[in-house]
Design goal:
The chain has 143 residues and is of the alpha+beta class. It has two domains: 11-70, Roll (2,3-Dihydroxybiphenyl 1,2-Dioxygenase, domain 1); 75-143, 2,3-Dihydroxybiphenyl 1,2-Dioxygenase, domain 1 (Roll). The chain contains three helices and eight strands. The chain has helices spanning 15-26, 35-38, 87-98; strands at 4-11, 29-34, 50-56, 62-67, 79-84, 102-109, 115-120, 126-131.
Length: 143
């Protein structure tokens, strides 16, 4: 698997509607999972909200999106997702992006079994890093 970089859109309670709309625009296969499906801790009223949505289009686009829980701020500058299985490469990207940035979620084992983290770089851009199938959690340091 190679490392992928793609947009990750943030919504407040409208990710399902938005992602279904984008499917009508771009075509392709849409997969959605909710906070309730994953067991992620959110307010009861948010358990049906989209924790992760992914649209893979016939043109080769990948568009991701999710509802932001009410306990977190919605990213206004956009978010970029880096994902793959090359742990060394992805941890290197994490460490470089974290320099001068702000930690959102530490880079560690997530409930779905991958290593996952979120940060905002020094320019205000949100980044998500997901390392597939990583057995050991590892925290990235912020400078």
């Amino acid at each position: 698997m190679t490392t992928r970089l793609n947009p990750y859109l943030s919504f407040r309670d409208s990710a399902r509607e938005a992602m279904e709309f984008y499917r009508t625009v771009f075509g392709g296969e849409l997969t959605l999972s909710t906070f309730g499906d994953s067991g992620m801790p959110v307010e009861d009223s948010e358990s049906g909200n989209v924790m992760h949505g992914q649209l893979d289009t016939p043109s080769g686009f990948t568009l991701m999106g999710a509802d932001t829980p009410s306990s977190m701020e919605v990213s206004t500058n956009g978010t970029v997702s880096l994902s793959g299985d090359d742990a060394a490469e992805l941890r290197g990207f994490w460490d470089a992006l974290a320099e001068g940035g702000t930690l959102g979620v530490p880079l560690e084992t997530a409930p779905w079994g991958d290593t996952f983290g979120m940060l905002t770089d020094r320019f205000g851009i949100g980044w998500m890093v997901n390392i597939a199938g990583s057995a050991e959690p590892e925290r990235g340091a912020l400078a």
